[in-house]
Amino acid sequence: MSYKITVDFKKGGRKSLPTIAPYPKEVNWDNSVPVYKTAAGVAYVRTPDECFENLPDYPFAPNYLEIDGLRMHYLDEGPKDGQVVLLLHGQPAWSYLYRKMIKGLTENGYRCIAPDMIGMGKSDKPIKEAYHSYYKHTSNALYLIQALGLKDLTMFGQDWGSLIGSRLVGENSDLFARMILANGELPLFTDETNPFYLPNPVEIDLNIEDFETATSAYPMVKMPEWFQVWILYCMTNPNLFVGPVMQSFTEIELTAGEVAAYAAPFPSFNYMTGPRTLPSMFLGIRGQTRKAWENLKKFEKPFLSLIGLKDDLLGLPVVQNKWINKVPGAKGQHHEQFENAGHFIQEDIGEIMADRVHQFIVKNPF
Fold first, then answer.
1. Active-site residue numbers?
2. What is the pLDDT of residue 221?
């Protein structure tokens, strides 16, 4: 069977980014960083390996796959004959986010595949914002699945990992045995209903405030205003904001080493195009989730929803209940809400997440 990701351009496919203004000279662009090009002319940078040395609790061997001349990094941990759990991260995280879950899952005999999106983690990083689209990143994830010959997958997705993973399941359900969303969503936007925008041209804001100050007027519960501020904050930011943002979205207190580990892939502004641009992919979602949603409303394989109630963005009972009520495979499953977990639920209660994945798989064998 042939697997693919579809785009209904007539009903709203990729919406191009506005013009990106030249970066001002004050931006921390490191001219000593080598810039490479794919055969198709995509310019990219590659984070030096030494940036990833001695990361706390991340003893995993790197694996790489080439996609259109770009190197995608992924973790492949646990027995090769174990049931496969596909762990999909969001923004501005990378596979480091799954280190706690991987430990618990591999101890129970599962094979964990945790890719870094192109532009994130140990993967290559295109320097042009236009590379990043919802369609492209979903297609990259599907390419990885097919290249590794994976099947009967249990998909675990959070943040952008949930948008990518639920679309993968919705359009290629034969590849998947089960589906888990933890603080996850799949919005239905059209041209008329998509509220998000970018100015044209997009300019770097040298006077941008810190994250907490920039978003203080818009609490997460005030949507979509909060997410619009988030889109602008990321896209126009001249700073290396990944570490502080990860702490802001996490309920537990990260160590200095953990904060540095999240920031490790992005040693200068040259590497920041992915974290800056991913939120603005919402501008191009219009119409692209329609087919996936239609199929998910007929998805009878096991589906589980887990949310952290301290996440005012996606950890909302109304979001969880929407999934439970619409996906047939949710019936009879032990959906849960966690009082002590925020947006990055894998960081806050990673060991518990690993346990819940294990229990879900045991309860729902092939």
1. 159, 311, 343
2. 58
CA–CA separation, 45 and 293 (whole Å): 35
> What distance in Å separates the CA atoms of residue 355 and residue 101, rounded to the nearest whole number?
8
β-strand pairing of 153-157 with 43-45 = unpaired
Q: Nearest-CA neighbor of 276 among 243, 302, 247, 237?
A: 237
* CATH-assigned architecture of domain 9-363: 3-Layer(aba) Sandwich (3.40)
Name the nearest CA neighbour of 182 among 330, 335, 302: 335
Phi, psi torsion values for 37, nearest 5 degrees = -135, 140
pTM for this model (two decimals):
0.96
Q: What angle do CA 78, 165, 110 make, to 5 degrees?
A: 15
Domain boundaries, the chain: 9-363
96 contacts 74 by C-beta, under 8 angstroms = no
CA 133 to chain centre: 12
Q: Is the Cβ–Cβ distance between 330 and 306 less than 8 Å?
A: no
**Main-chain phi, psi angles of 101, to 5 degrees:** -65, -40
Closest CA relative to residue 274, chosen from 197, 358, 160:
160
C-alpha 168/C-alpha 142 separation (Å) is 7
**Residue 12's pLDDT band (cuts 50, 70, 90):** very low
DSSP letter string over 207-235?
A: TPPPHHHHHTTS-TTSTTHHHHHHHHHHH
DSSP state at residue 22: P
Selection from 16, 3, 136 nearest residue 67 by Cα? 136
Instruction: For residues 20 and 268, give the distance between their C-alpha atoms in angstroms, rounded to a whole number.
Output: 19
| Average pLDDT taken over every residue of the chain | 94
